Amino acid sequence: MTKKQGLAISIATGDSRSISKQIVDAIRIKVAKGELDSGAQLPSVRGLAMQLSINPNTVAKAYAELTAEGWLQARQGLGLYVAEARARLSTEERDHRLNEAVNRFVNEVVALGVSHDAALTRLDQALRHVMRRSA
Amino acid sequence: MKTSTPIIHTQGLAMQFAGKAAINHLDLTLEPGITHAIVGANGAGKSTLFRILLGFMQPSAGQAWILGCASHALTPEVRGRIGFVNEEHTLPSWMRVEQLVALQRSLYPRWRQPLYDEIIGHFDVGPRQQIAELSRGERAGVNLALSVAQAPELLILDEPTLGLDVVAKRAFIEALLYTAEEEARSLIYCSHQMDEIERVADNLIILERGTLRHVSPPDEFTDGIRYWIAEMPFRGPDPHSVPGLLEVQRIDGLHHYLVLDTDDSFGDFLKQHGARSMHSMPVSLDRAINGFLAKGHRVPVAA
């Protein structure tokens, strides 16, 4: 039996990410940081929609995406749970997404004119901070 | 009552006022069971469209159907399946809330008292209060509760939160979104409030001067628009030659472009025109819609 836990996330309107994408990102981060353990139950679609004052279909869409990527798992009639930490994406898909992420990062950083080493150090710190608890 | 009949369907719909087109050959089909947000500048033709759809106005040309029935021949039975909430929230001011509720209950055979009670619970409105004593936000609440309790298959809301304070706005949106969602009601929501559109819309419809400009889920719309900042030689390419251009500004010697750019090819265009540096970023729904609608009113590039 798993205990119900709240999902402390917030969304912002006027962001360049859609609300659905913000939910996906927030839950991925929570799982990566270990703030949501595998087996933890997610709020119901309607519950999270009410918490965030948004259309329930938007939550359903975010949950569907997280489920398709293997972050969440449906249990028949019981709701959604954080999936076991395993390869959550296929190798090609992960490669593809890593490439995209690196490109975005490089584009932004180049525009900032920070030195190569300074950028790497900061990236390393940020990754360590996030990964520490999920390692 | 699950059905796949479009809630709204128009074919070649046109409406002229004194030679000026308020609706211009509009072909629109909206599927049931979701929330459609209609966005458009003032004068985009929204109000005219609703008047035609509800049979209060005859179009100059074309045809319109609502809930599968021809708009010019709506029966009282069909009208009873449509709820309409506009920004005026005009209710008979001399009545008490309970009198108004009793009246509506007698008019609508599908009246659902629990829905009324649930929605009015979001607002501080007592049954003995006189309508004239209510604030604008409270009137909006009564109006919404009355409309939803009619259990309409289609609920049309035309700028329902106009002039409401933040608290009333939030109460209104919550009452709208979380009441009886299991009924899969169809909603049409018109608003200029982009934060509300983001919160409520499954589908985004953009009207401009009576013409349909865009239909898709909101995130697909924003995905197709990007903001580029580039350092261009001289004055940059002629704005008329810039593909998908929505907006261009020159700020501190850099060119800022807002463009329709679905495949990231805009970067190649800038390179071909000698860009010395450039970067791009996604935009918010608010920014995307503004840019999209402002296209007709393009500002000339400052020297």
UniProtKB/TrEMBL annotation, chain A:
Q: Which SMART domains match?
A: HTH_GNTR
Q: Does the keyword Cytoplasm apply?
A: no
For the HTH gntR-type domain, which residue ranges apply?
17-85
Q: Does the keyword Glycosyltransferase apply?
A: no
Highest taxon of the lineage: Bacteria
Q: Which Gene3D superfamilies match?
A: Winged helix-like DNA-binding domain superfamily/Winged helix DNA-binding domain
Protein name, entry field? GntR family transcriptional regulator
